[in-house]
């Protein structure tokens, strides 16, 4: 194991950045240059971007931490150094812990890949106080439990935040809480490179839960793999159960966050909330439900994931638009042909592994993140913005549900200073309308204005019809060679955007293709054709200044 | 360990008479034997015999026995794959029991459009066939107790024959007494488990993944939650060269309901409104989600991650079904893997809608509900 990954996840994708840039950042971020030698039996704090280096947590700071890690362990001077010690220190609770298994190499047979490291990880949840999980633990499964990484997200019910901890032997380090994820200095730093908006994360959230052991796929172990005898392994259940936990936890934090930031009727940082409507702060990964290696030309048509075509979770479920079109599906012959035509392969440069073909489940792509959509839904529920406003924004460039520069452009109209909560939506709409008056009709502002000016009685019907028309056009193109090849290139373009995020930790998460890394970014048009995107980004950091 | 004397009724239910219990034992045992034998090799190639599957009443379960519970989500995966949104798939699932194909079916009661009660069942239709043949009065009593006091004998029996899809058990609104979706049969479960014990080495590579196994062995549909998962889990035991069976009592059971993210208006525990009505503590076969009348709210007022429960299908997303297999004699099977996928040699076998094996009653002078159609059950329809 490279030294830089001691007590850390072996993020192979970070090694492939220029000069291993992210991996180096990661090392520096944990404790900070010049940190004191860690002493056993101590809790330190190091919030990346805030604390220059780790320092011991004082008694008052410790008393202010209200999660089970603090109350059951650290306040009692107990510092578990391995996951089993941690679990042994928790009170017995029915059906706890719940143990899950994940590995990007877990479904690759060891035959033919003898040097490929499995890097299997446990994700463990534990409901200490009630029926909702309080502890989310991540640790290596097939490594020494005392030297592999051990990280915990712990819900603090008193302060309504997640506290994030990691063990760095011989001590533990508090690396921040959910609010630090939103604060400019620490945003995107340290553990908040993946806990981007302060919540727990499961990238492959939906069925078939790629890379997770689940009812859809099992992680393969050799008959003599010692992991089989691990008591935690023997408790592993399917990731379908973790999905419900993560959805609940994201909802929990989002509602707590909204309660806090609107408590006095004023939103101090509207941009912190609304960047999750206008931009892509995070993504989930979605895929078909079909094992790629089992697909043969002539099989039943292959429906591609809805989240690739539009933000169906927000538009169709939360905002209740209704489409009458079917899920676009291609022929399996087109799919299998594309694997050869574009040189699909799984590749881990860190180990020299390469194998032709797609990921285990076919057609993995980024889609709009649940954590972004949940913020939008709760904003609507609490009346900070109307459903019509949210729909008018999301209908701008809707064929590009993630990484849309057009929607990101509208972020410039979002107030960055304190704003009355009940005036937020209208104020923002009028800012965009004012700007639209001076801009072309096909500008993002102009399109928003056209949406906004639709009568209240018909906007749902109008938007629904557009979505239906679009999906029908997609279906017409997806079975043609040119059309499907376009969508393969579009998918790869979006994958490249994901690969540039620190959320992308493992090389085997996504396939590699012959499409050059320097190929132009692509965007989908409403007529279901694909074109080169104009230069620009959609991350909030790129769109706000 | 040793053999068991007989197969118990599912959930160790006590509805059956002594005579009915014997008939049930014969039914299960015959189906297991039938599944071990596999299809006629003159008609179907590479699908039998299933030598690693065994009958608990005839073959010892060895001391190294381990059980393996296989669980899956009750909501139909096929609808998920082919729907554009959650709302759309919930509506589809609620439209017809025919769509509910994961060994779990449900029915919803509404008042003023709002859900007041959702009933879930995973009871096999064959059990009710046996019950109807041996204790028809009990069938009527149970329907009146669990579905409606208005049920009449003539609603359930047509010319003296029990109608599985009677009007009190064929909708998503009028009640659900037992499974009726054509693939949701116990015989199909047994057949699937037995067929999945066949190891497949194709072009020198042993198949291990759920979908490639189900496609090669053709014991179910790759797009379901249940079939590939059951098959994959059983096959993983077979690859350890073990002998495998389904534990007694053979059946499909509720694994549980997760209520993470659920909120009741009064802050009470949403889990407390989930109750089991039939089956012993380890083998639940009937469940109800209902808020007591003493509360001033109903199921439709409970939210899941902020969204009110508008469909029973939303609850089904959180329900899991299970079966349990037992494996023993690890490393001792000498059965060689098949080196080809299942092939139908001539014409395709009929796919019975009523997968009932007549011999369950033959020894006692009875015939099943559709003996002429007592062919091998499959989950492929």
Keywords:
heterodimer, A: 545 residues, alpha+beta, 2 domains, 8-stranded mixed β-sheet, two-stranded antiparallel ribbon, 19 helices, 18 strands, globular, disordered C terminus, B: 381 residues, 4-stranded antiparallel β-sheet, 18% strand
Q: Quick recap of the structure?
A:
The complex is a heterodimer of chains A (545) and B (381). Chain A is built from 19 helices and 18 strands.
Structure characterization notes:
By secondary structure, chain A is α+β, with helices and mostly antiparallel strands. Chain A has 2 domains: 3-249, no CATH class; 265-543, no CATH class. Helix content of chain A is 33%, strand content 14%. In chain A, a hairpin with a 2-residue loop joins strand 7 (161-168) and strand 8. The longest helix of chain A is centred in the middle third of the chain and has 23 residues, at 239-261. Chain A is globular. Mean pLDDT of chain A is 93; it is low at 539-545. In chain B, strands 2, 9, 10 and 16 form a 4-stranded antiparallel β-sheet that branches. A 4-stranded antiparallel β-sheet of chain B has the order 3-4-13-12. By secondary structure, chain B is α+β, with helices and mostly antiparallel strands. Chain B has one domain (1-368). In chain B, helix 1 (18-37) crosses helix 4 and helix 8 crosses helix 9 (226-238). The longest helix of chain B has 20 residues, at 18-37. Classes of the chains: A alpha+beta (545), B alpha+beta (381). At the A-B interface, helix 7, helix 10 and helix 12 of A face strand 2, helix 2, helix 3, helix 8 and helix 9 of B.
């Amino acid at each position: 194991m490279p030294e830089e990954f001691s007590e850390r996840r072996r993020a192979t994708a970070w090694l492939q950045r220029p000069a291993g840039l992210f991996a180096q950042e990661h090392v520096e971020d944990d404790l900070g240059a010049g940190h004191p030698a860690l002493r056993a039996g101590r809790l330190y704090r190091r919030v990346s971007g805030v604390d220059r280096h780790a320092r011991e947590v004082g008694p008052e700071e410790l008393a202010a931490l209200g999660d089970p890690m603090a109350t059951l362990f650290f306040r009692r001077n107990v510092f578990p150094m391995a996951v089993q010690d941690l679990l042994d220190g928790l009170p017995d609770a029915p059906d706890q812990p719940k143990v899950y298994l994940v590995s990007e190499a877990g479904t690759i047979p060891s035959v033919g890949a003898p040097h490929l490291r499995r890097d299997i990880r446990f994700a463990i949840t534990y409901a200490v106080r009630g029926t909702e999980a309080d502890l989310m633990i991540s640790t290596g499964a097939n490594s020494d439990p005392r030297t592999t990484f051990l990280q915990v997200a712990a819900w603090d019910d008193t302060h309504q935040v997640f506290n994030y901890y990691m063990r760095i032997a011989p001590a533990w380090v508090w690396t921040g809480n959910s609010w630090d994820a939103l604060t400019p200095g620490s945003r995107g730093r340290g553990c908040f490179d993946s806990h981007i908006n302060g919540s727990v994360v499961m990238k492959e959230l939906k069925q078939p839960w790629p890379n997770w052991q689940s009812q859809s796929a099992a992680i393969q172990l050799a008959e003599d793999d010692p992991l089989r005898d691990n008591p935690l392994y023997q408790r592993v259940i399917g990731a379908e159960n973790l999905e419900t936990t993560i959805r609940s936890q994201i909802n929990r934090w989002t509602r707590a966050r909204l309660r806090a930031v609107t408590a006095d009727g004023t939103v101090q940082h509207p941009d912190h909330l609304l960047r999750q409507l206008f931009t892509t702060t995070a993504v989930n990964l979605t895929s078909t439900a079909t094992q790629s290696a089992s697909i043969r030309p002539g099989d039943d048509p292959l429906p591609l994931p809805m989240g690739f075509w539009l933000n169906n979770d927000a538009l169709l479920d939360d905002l209740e638009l209704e489409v009458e079109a079917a899920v676009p599906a291609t022929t399996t012959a087109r799919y299998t042909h594309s694997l050869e035509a574009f040189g699909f392969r799984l590749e881990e440069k860190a180990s020299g592994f390469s194998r032709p073909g797609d990921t285990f489940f076919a057609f993995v792509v980024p889609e709009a993140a649940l954590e972004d959509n949940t913020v939008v839904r709760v904003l609507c529920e609490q009346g900070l913005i109307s459903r019509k406003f949210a729909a008018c924004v999301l209908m701008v460039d809707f064929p590009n549900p993630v990484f849309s520069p057009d929607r990101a452009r509208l972020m410039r109209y979002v107030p960055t200073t304190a704003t009355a909560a009940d005036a937020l939506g209208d104020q923002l709409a009028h800012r965009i309308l004012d700007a639209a008056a001076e801009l072309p009709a096909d500008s993002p502002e102009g399109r928003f204005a056209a949406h906004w000016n639709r009568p209240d009685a018909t906007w749902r019907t109008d938007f629904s019809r557009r979505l239906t028309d679009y999906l029908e056009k997609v279906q017409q193109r997806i079975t043609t060679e040119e059309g499907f090849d376009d969508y393969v290139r579009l998918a790869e373009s979006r994958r490249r955007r994901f690969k540039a995020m620190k959320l992308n930790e493992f090389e085997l998460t996504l396939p590699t293709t012959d499409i050059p890394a320097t190929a132009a970014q692509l965007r989908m048009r409403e007529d279901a054709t694909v074109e080169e995107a104009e230069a620009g980004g959609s991350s909030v950091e790129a769109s706000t200044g | 360990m040793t053999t068991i004397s007989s197969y118990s009724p599912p959930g160790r239910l006590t509805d059956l008479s002594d005579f009915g219990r014997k008939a049930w034992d014969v039914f299960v045992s015959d189906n297991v034997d039938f599944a071990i034998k596999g299809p006629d090799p003159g008609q179907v190639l590479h699908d039998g015999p299933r030598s690693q599957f065994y009958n608990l009443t005839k073959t010892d379960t060895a001391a190294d026995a381990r059980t393996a519970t296989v669980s899956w989500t009750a909501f139909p995966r096929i609808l998920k794959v082919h729907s554009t949104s959650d709302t759309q798939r919930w509506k589809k699932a609620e439209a017809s029991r025919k769509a509910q194909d994961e060994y779990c079916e449900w029915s919803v009661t509404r008042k003023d459009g709002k859900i007041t009660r959702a009933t879930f069942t995973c009871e096999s239709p064959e059990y009710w066939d046996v019950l109807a043949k041996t204790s028809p009065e009990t069938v009527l009593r149970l329907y009146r107790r669990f579905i409606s006091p208005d049920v009449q004998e003539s609603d359930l029996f047509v010319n003296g024959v029990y109608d599985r899809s009677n009007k009190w058990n064929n909708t998503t609104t009028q009640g659900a007494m037992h499974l009726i979706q054509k693939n949701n049969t116990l015989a199909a479960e047994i057949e699937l488990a037995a067929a999945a014990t066949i190891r497949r080495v194709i072009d020198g590579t042993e198949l291990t993944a759920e979908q490639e196994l189900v496609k090669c062995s053709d014991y179910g549909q790759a797009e379901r939650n249940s079939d590939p998962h059951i098959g994959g889990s059983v096959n993983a035991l077979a690859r350890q060269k073990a002998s495998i069976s389904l534990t007694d009592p053979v059946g499909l059971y509720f694994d549980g309901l997760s209520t993470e993210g659920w909120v009741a208006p009064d802050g009470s525990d949403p889990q407390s409104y989930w109750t089991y009505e039939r089956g012993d503590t380890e083998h639940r076969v009937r469940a109800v989600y209902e808020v007591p009348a003493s509360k001033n709210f109903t199921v439709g007022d409970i939210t899941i991650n902020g969204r009110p429960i508008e469909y029973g299908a939303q609850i089904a997303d959180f329900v899991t079904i299970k079966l349990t297999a037992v494996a023993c004699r690890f490393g001792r099977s000498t059965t060689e893997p098949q080196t080809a996928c299942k092939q139908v040699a001539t014409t395709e076998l009929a796919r019975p809608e009523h997968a009932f094996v007549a011999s369950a009653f033959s020894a006692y002078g009875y015939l099943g509900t559709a003996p002429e159609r007592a062919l091998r059950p499959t989950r492929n329809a």
